[in-house]
Design goal:
The protein is α/β, with parallel strands linked by helices. It folds into two domains: 5-69 and 294-316, Enolase-like, domain 1; 76-285, TIM Barrel (Alpha-Beta Barrel). 36% of the residues lie in helices and 19% in strands. It has eleven helices and twelve strands. The protein has helices at residues 51-66, 88-98, 114-128, 144-153, 169-178, 187-190, 196-200, 211-214, 217-227, 240-251, 301-316, and strands at residues 11-23, 26-36, 39-43, 76-78, 81-83, 102-106, 133-137, 162-163, 183-185, 206-210, 231-234, 283-285. Helix 1 crosses helix 11 and helix 9 (217-227) packs parallel to helix 10.
């Protein structure tokens, strides 16, 4: 369809999935599913990402469609539920519906204040019960001093870890000396030309690894092996096709000390399969996904053209 050799032996299917709740200003997930000789891949970079970034997402999609993936070491993967910047009632419903014992809560949204975030966290704690684990995701939006103060103020929630509390590696290093809560790196990993810089700088206790932004399952597993610190495989808000590749990566790791951030199908109001990859009692069992609802969610002509343009731009950096 694109005229590029990369796509000579694949099928391309642009689709749009509705979100059940708004997530970081996203209300629909636009994507291209790619079918190749080894199965299905997904290309679903967020709007606004340049080709230098989306090319890695395309590499991951083509890998899944055209190359054998590693054999899993386990069948089931523990997953956390994800609570976006929503009201306490919605937060409670998401936690109860998930059945998970670990929840990642989004904070530092531009529409939130500290009281709003506290109410959301309290709702999650009440829904989880005393044995549940809470981690928060800041997306690098706190300053160093604010991160220090806020993490100390949330001491009563016994946070499992704080994901990307500040933006820079330098501030991550300093923050680790100021607080007792483990620090996880996400944007510092996928936004770096060399993700190992995070480890070498001593900027994180945990790495959050996402298959599409890193360029595929094999690259994700290679980085996990070299890191020497715990990793958490997480979703980039994909359909069940993309999630299956995250589950495949997590199931191929020698150890899984933390629940993975792969329970995000719950945030979609529709999926490309009638049997989506949703968690049951905080676990997802790895299986191949058959996208039998492509026709239902087929992108309209204008959206498909925009997706194809992004695909071609990404492909130019791979050829």
């Amino acid at each position: 369809m694109t005229g590029a050799p990369l796509f000579d032996h694949v099928e391309i299917h642009p689709v749009v999935l509705p979100m059940a709740v708004e997530f970081r200003n996203v209300v629909e997930r636009e994507m291209i599913l790619i079918r190749g000789p080894e199965g299905w891949g997904e290309f679903s970079p967020f709007p606004g990402y340049p080709p230098s970034v989306t090319s890695r997402w395309l590499a991951a999609a083509l890998e899944a469609a055209c190359q054998p993936l590693p054999e899993p070491l386990r069948r089931t993967v523990p997953v956390n539920a994800t609570v976006p910047a929503v009201d306490p009632e919605t937060a409670t419903a998401l936690v109860v519906e998930s059945g998970a014992s670990t929840v990642k809560v989004k904070v530092a949204d531009s529409r939130d204040d500290e009281d709003t975030e506290l109410s959301r966290l309290e709702a999650v704690r009440d829904a989880l019960g005393p044995g549940g684990r809470i981690r928060i995701d800041v997306n690098g939006r706190w300053s160093l001093d604010e991160a220090t103060r806020r993490i100390e103020a949330l001491h009563g929630f016994d946070l499992e870890y704080v994901e990307q509390p500040v933006a820079s590696l330098e501030d991550m290093v300093i923050l680790r000396t100021r607080v007792d809560v483990p620090i996880a790196a996400d944007e510092s990993v996928r936004g770096s030309v060399d993700p190992m810089m995070v480890v070498e700088a001593g900027a994180a206790d945990i790495l959050v690894l996402k298959v599409q932004p890193l360029g595929g399952v094999w690259r994700t597993l290679d980085l996990a092996a070299r890191a020497g610190i715990p990793v958490v495989i997480s979703s980039a808000l994909e359909s069940s096709i993309g999630l299956s590749h995250g589950i495949r990566a997590a199931a191929s790791l020698p150890e899984l000390p933390y629940a993975c951030g792969l329970g995000t199908a719950q945030l979609l109001a529709g999926d490309v399969t009638s049997e989506p990859l949703v968690g049951v009692a905080g676990e997802i069992t790895y299986r191949e996904i058959v996208p039998d609802l492509l026709g239902k969610w087929r992108a309209d002509t204008a959206t498909a053209q925009g997706l194809m343009r992004r695909l071609r731009e990404a492909a130019e950096l791979l050829t």
